[in-house]
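[09:14] KT: can someone run the structure on this one? pasting the chain below
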Amino acid sequence: MGFKMGIVGLPNVGKSTLFNALTKTAAAQAANFPFCTIEPNVGEVNVPDSRLDKLAAIAQSKSIIPARMTFVDIAGLVKGASKGEGLGNQFLANIRECDAIAHVVRCFEDGDVTHVEGRVDPVDDAQVIETELMLADLESIEKRRANLVRKLKGNDKEAADQDRLLAAAQEALENDRPARTVEVDADDMKQWKMLQLLTQKPILYVCNVEEENAAVGNAHSEAVAQMAVEQGAGTVVISAKIEEEISQLEEDEAEMFLGEMNLEEAGLDRLIRAGYSLLNLETYFTVGPKEARAWTIAQGTSAPQAAGVIHGDFERGFIRAETIAYNDYTECDGEQGAKEAGKMRAEGKSYIVKDGDVMHFLFNT
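[09:31] RB: done, structure tokens below
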């Protein structure tokens, strides 16, 4: 699986510029006025992973298929969106469909780019969006709990469990805390996720800074980072303008440009890495002469579940997984060398896949 990240923020913070750069398209209109993004734009990008290229070179794979990540550019939310102000309210459903939220906050000063509130205060901007999502969740919870009354009177256990979880989320929200701060038992986790609350989503603050501050950030991004630590959220510093320029360059030109800007890697790489960390994701590989491919899984995924990411039949008929650690594969110059060195392992149903594993699944049809 890949994962889907919704890009949100107030109007004119650089969401669409960042989206265009990340997806290397002009699908999202980047204009200096609110609500220029009216339909949610969706774009897929390759997840950069140098390990995949190295594996493909060793195996002489004819094709390379990276993991994919989906970005959804969601219209600029404004104060009052939960009550229908602006255009934000109609896009709340798009946020529900995402695995995580990339909350772009304006951390740059530019008199030529208007701000919906007439000032630059990224922490306050973040709180405006968070408040609107919390209000939308509260409204949703109240309606859902009201609809459960009849089932609760009939002693419906599933309804009772759902109401208990909704009540816990409601208590948090009424105390100005997002739903993601609620401690949920492992037994309740499946049903908790099914609630699909907006403030359940893990959040990554994307600090959009001036070009000259792309490497180290500025006072605004430092304030956001402090807020993120208090919330248990993630942060990444990016200059959307730089990313837009990089997206138009050839690979060698892009590397030279990054060097001139004192940046070790493109913002896309940092954003994806931060997103993976936020969602506790990792990668395993399948490698052969036909193709080398990266697959995204959650940390703690068992071998049969990992096989199921490729095809459901692989999970249902799982027998074992021939597994080679990435370092063993590269150090032994491929599968045959790893076999001869005793580095290939036969792993069963209880095996928990590790990041970088090179795997071949055996299954019954």
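[09:33] KT: thanks! The chain has a mean pLDDT of 86.
[09:34] RB: yep, looked fine to me
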